[in-house]
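During the reporting period, our protein records have gained a structure token line. A sample record is set out beneath this paragraph:
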Amino acid sequence: MGSKASEQRNRVATALERVRHQIGLVLGAAAGARREAEAELAKLELEQHIVRVGMNNSTSEQYTEWSRHPAANEVFGRLGSIRGQFYAEWEAGPNGLRELVAGNAPGPASQQAGNWLGRVGGNPGITAPGLWRVGSATVPGQDVPRTFDVAVPLLDESHLSIRSAPKTRDAVDGIVQNLLMRILSTFEPGAVRIHLWDVGQLTAILPDLYPLSRTSALTLYDPGRLEDLLDELAGHIRRIHATGMQAGHTSLREIRRASGQRVEPFRVAVLYGNGETLEPERARELKRVATGALAAGICLILIDVPTMLSTSVESLSLHDDRHAISSMTGPDLLVDLDPPMPSGQVIRAAGRIAEALIAKQGGPRAFADLLPTELGKESSARELRAPVGFFEGEAVEVVIGDASPHVLIGGPSGSGKTNFLYSLLGSFAARYSPDELALYLLDFKEGVSFAGLAPGRRDASWLPHAKLIGVNVNTDREFGLALLRFLAEELRRRSAAAKLHEVTNLADLREQDPGGHWPRIVAVIDEFQYLFAGRDGVTATATQLLEDIARRGRSQGIHLVLASQDVAGIEAFWGKPAVFEQCTLRIAMPKARRVLSETNNAAVSAPKWHAVINHDSGVAHGNQLAHVPDASSRDVFNKLQHRLWERYSESFKRPRLFDGAHSPVLEQFPAFTDLKPTSRPRALLGQSIDVGEAACGVDLPKAPGRNIAVLGAATAEALSIMDSAARSLAKQYAHDSVEFVLSCPIEASFPAVAELAERLSQEGHAATLVDDLPGRVIDIAEKLSTSDKAKVLLLYGVDASIPALEAKAPGQLKSGLDQLRVLLKQGPTHGVHIIGWWRSIARLKDTLGFAGTDDIGSWAALDVQGNELAPFAAGQVVHWSPRPGRALFFDRTTHGAPEVIIPFQRPEGLLDG
């Protein structure tokens, strides 16, 4: 097939050259005859000694004198002979051109527009006409003038350069638009793509073609971004070259002929340069593109682009708005340009082509078109593969596996990033069962993108593949860190299993351990840059973990999908390219920047509801444009979720939902509901910010320092921590085995404390709300060694009780404060524990005196700055800035560093009704 294609091209080239030669003979014959006649006259002058009279300067008297010369008849006879030879040679010229155009410019390529404009072409685009009409030319004949069509080679044959004349922009637009409509109307819809760039105009570049802009047939480029167009074309050339080389072909034309089908559309790039000098780099890139373009099915039409191309280029130089000189027909012949096609007819014709293209592609594609006919039939052993959108009716797939292990998604607000994520997750979930795919979904900032994938009040269904869903994580960077720690631990577990089975990747591990549970894990972190927003331990640890997971996760089937509005400001990754180098799959939403490679700006011109899919680390030749259907509107994704839920919900647990905007409810928390009487009670203070639904608590054995301090003036959070600690302890003590002593000198908090005392009493425990705290403290301290009943002192606003505790009655050796210090130091070993609330660090220090901080073994800080907490955290630097609804928790017996917790919700009026 390749040799036949080569022979056909050679025949066309030979025919063109023959006609050029004939035209050259015709146009040069008269000049040749004149030069020969003048030579004969010069010879006669020497022989006859007459005065030479030039034919071109003759006057009537000179001609009369010459005509009487004896040699005149001989000269005129020779001129007549040359003239006869001239017209004999010319007879073949117009006829040859007409035959050539008829044979190589069929249908719309050469016919008058009235014969085809408005009709949608049906040529499948395997072969292209060799010539395309631009006008006609007329030369004198022996009897009548001779007229012939003027056509230029394009597409696979040649580029076209047009040089305008003053005030001929409309004529230039007419030439270009006529050619484009001929090309578009020749082929079936989708077989041709037009790329338009004009350095001088922001809009209105060939406006009659704008109906095509809602399809892939027409793309406009920013006038200041020629590099975007050149990068796209260069990437296309590299991709076609790589594909052709693998198949043993050197051009797209050969690939089409060998396969018998259109594997790629023709591309026509129209560049209006307006005579402006291109930047040196742009000029060099244009020359490089032009050199390889024809073989890749790309034709350039350059208008006033002052760059010489070292490849096949035809030229048209406008003489005025109706005439041009063509290099095809020689330098001395004017071409009568075809008039521009009627604007209204062109608009209607372009609209019909656009409608036909949309209809051919099945119309606007829906999310349902991404889904398979049967759910959960694919295996993820080797990779995850699923379509996320469509291009020209064909599905565009995303592949996550060893070759493209991690994904970077970028798109500004409103660009469709969330919709793309839903399309991606839904397409994967429909193909792979929860045994094959496990999803961990986290949305930073104030996002609730994934909230609908968890069960809610209105919809009890959930996405069975989801194991963890985090929403509204606007300030809880610690939760992102917890997810990375979980993934790192899972990576260690899988690596150990792989080592045990002497394999190196997930596919082999699943083969060697068929009974194990080894799904591919995909962790989606939206707005991930917020995880690295601070210069603290969270950022440092998260960076280290993310780099490790990015490097080693691919072999064990752990994949990251990192999405962001803007990745430009992530200081944590400056000079640390490990993560981004592993994100070989790049997805750029419209107007996204710095997601693809630095020189790839395909996303800048991507239309709305589209995405640029690139599996080659963002370099331009890997671009695939995809229209992403609506996957996030109401009831679109839910239909799929309900199908999956009905199929899998009985076999898989509901996902863990972490909602940073809501405090957990103690009564609904598993760690609380599972509590039973024990000899080692544990006071629950709040929810741990972790992948698992765990609570943070303090064990209260009979050991020194087992007291708890709540620090800060945030009343609601302080009451909540005190309340959850008391109620959780109450569930672990048998009836009549503990006494709760409550004290609250703060008037505003007294009702809440009284309510707690009443609840504890209703649960069968001794609970006393005392007015005389000093007296009660003294009494307990004096009987400390003889008491056999556990006691828990719940002291609210201890700092407000200091004046009363410091006072001594007459004859009293120790004050209430002295005895409180005794209880803090010695009480825990006798089963007496203090849970106290101090509204400032200074007041806590006053309470402890010179005894140091060892008597406070654990604490929860609220609106207290981190630098004040160092003495109570084993002297280490504490990074903590107070934030509403959160507390910093530290237990010196279990913690290496403090951790952030979420106090439980404390509903008002618990005892009402």
Observations:
- The first strand starts at residue 132 and ends at 139.
- Residues 25-31, 46-60, 909-913 have pLDDT under 50 and may be disordered.
- The CA atoms of residues 52 and 369 lie 88 Å apart.
